[in-house]
Amino acid sequence: MLDKARRDHSSVSNIHFIQSTFEDLFSHFPSQYNQVDVIYSNAALQWTSGANHALLLPRYIKELLKPDGTFAMQIPDTKDQPSHKAMRVAAQVLGLVELDSVRQARSELTSTCYRRLLRAHCSSLNMWNTIYCHELMDSDGGKEENPVANFFAGSGLGAYLEALADDVQKKETYTREYRRLVAEAYPKEAEDNATLLFMKRFFLVATK
Ligand SMILES: C[S@@+](CC[C@H](N)C(=O)[O-])C[C@H]1O[C@@H](n2cnc3c(N)ncnc32)[C@H](O)[C@@H]1O
Prior knowledge:
The chain is of the alpha+beta class and about 210 residues long. The protein has a single domain, classed as Vaccinia Virus protein VP39 (Rossmann fold, 3-Layer(aba) Sandwich), CATH 3.40.50.150. It has helices at about 1-10, 25-30, 50-65, 80-95, 110-120, 145-155, 155-165, 170-185; strands spanning about 35-40, 65-75, 125-135, 195-205. Strands 1-2-4-3 form a 4-stranded mixed sheet. Helix 4 packs across helix 8. The two termini are about 30 Å apart. The protein binds S-adenosylmethionine. S-adenosylmethionine binds near residues 22, 44, 47 and 48. S-adenosylmethionine binds next to loops.
């Protein structure tokens, strides 16, 4: 991603690319920028816990933003979504206790929590949820296609499969059960075989 950004924006002179975790951003922040106008994060901060949001977000605003600067983020809010419930249910059905502690990458704090954390540091704070409807089509129109399970195979499901480490048998059994539950939760539209995936996202825009 950084390589592509470097290539695409090579003509811009005052641009710096840094690679950092959210947690280490303070020490990697380019020294020539004391503070910045905008901090923007799309679909990434869900990978760190709500406890870390409570530590980091007030500091981003206080320490890294100019007066009047804006912090904006979007994160998935999927805890009540059938696709994500199925990850937990499949583990329970199969008695895979090693999956009990897997953290789903998603919004953990409520809007009320964010308000309590941030309001003292902001002149304005806007938060909202949007539910997107993704219309997923089977790649080959076959009855066995499971586009919702495919959609999360490379993201949400990854943490569960990683926790099963090298146990190929368990991974296969777990994946099969997950796909079965998801297919049940997301029936296809009779007319055109489309599968509708409703995806809730949380947005927060805080101006200092
Ligand atoms: C779904 S991608 C979103 C990428 C990009 N923002 C976009 O909108 O296309 C999630 C990104 O979060 C990054 N990520 C995960 N944990 C992180 C952490 N602790 N600190 C910083 N980035 C992290 C991953 O490396 C990945 O690039």
